[in-house]
Amino acid sequence: MSVTKMEEMDLKNIVTKIVREVAAGTEDMAIPVEMSARHVHLTPEDVQALFGRDAQLTLKRNLSLPGFLAEERVSIVTAKGVFQNVAVLGPVREHTQVELSAADAFALGIKPPVNISGDFTGAEDVYLIGSHGMIYAKNSAIIAQAHIHLSQEEAEQMGLADRDLVRAELEGRRPLIMNNVMIRVGEGMHAMMHIDMDEANASGYDSAKRARIRK
Ligand SMILES: [Zn+2]
Predict the structure, then answer these.
(1) How far is the centre of ligand 1, averaged over its atoms, from the C-alpha of 63 (Å)?
(2) Is 132 inside a domain boundary?
(3) Which one, of 101, 178, 177, 117, lies nearest residue 149 by Cα?
(4) Domain that holds residue 67
(5) What start-end ranges are recorded for coiled-coil regions in this protein (predicted)?
(6) Ligand 1 centroid to residue 104 C-alpha, Å
């Protein structure tokens, strides 16, 4: 074997070792997990239709990622069922979005798609009732796909990009491996996994829950 060949081999080994170490680093990063109960996001027009002319959402408390829980609450109504006192999250958005778990959807007698936030393909219609009025929120209801928020820096560190799909291993007494977990890279974000109530229950959720990414 020539010296050049040997050096090539060494280089390959070193590269392989580095790649493995980087991958191991990714796998070792424990990401906090938050459970999102059913909630709605509203357009400015829908806020006014539900809570009165000139109404704006009132901050109750900030969320761990950009956004806030509003003082305002709504009821979600279909021909089959009602959920009262549902959380409204601010700030307002361009499209009203109702996020339900599959169990919620069953109780309401609707079949929303499992979509990532902002994708209304096949979304269901529900009525929303506020303190001042009611709206027919067409094409608004989805079951949110489990996702992991990352900052740009975190994504780069982990070798991940926006909209990548990964497996996430949820730790705990009822450990669960979830497939098709979508990576969302965004400004002002930091590592945080969001699951809905069904997924939380299935994985024995508590607020100390952590997840690890398995590519
Ligand atoms: Zn989220």
Answers:
(1) 11
(2) yes
(3) 117
(4) 38-143
(5) none
(6) 18
- Chain segment 149-162, per-residue pLDDT in tens: 999 999 999 999 99
- Determine, yes or no, domain membership for 186: no
Count the domains in the chain. Answer: 1
In this structure, what token pair is assigned to residue 38? 């059913």
Measured in Å, residue 8 CA sits from the centre of ligand 1 at 45
CA dihedral 197→119→39→52, nearest 10 degrees, is -170
Residue 37, Ramachandran bin (φ over 0: left; ψ between -120 and 50: alpha; else beta): beta
- The rounded mean pLDDT for the chain is 92
Q: How far is the CA of 4 from the centre of ligand 1 (A)?
A: 51
Distance of CA 194 to the CA centre of its chain: 4
Ligand 1 centre to CA of 193 (Å) is: 7
Distance 2 CA to ligand 1 centre (A): 54
Q: What percent of the chain is modeled with pLDDT above 90?
A: 82
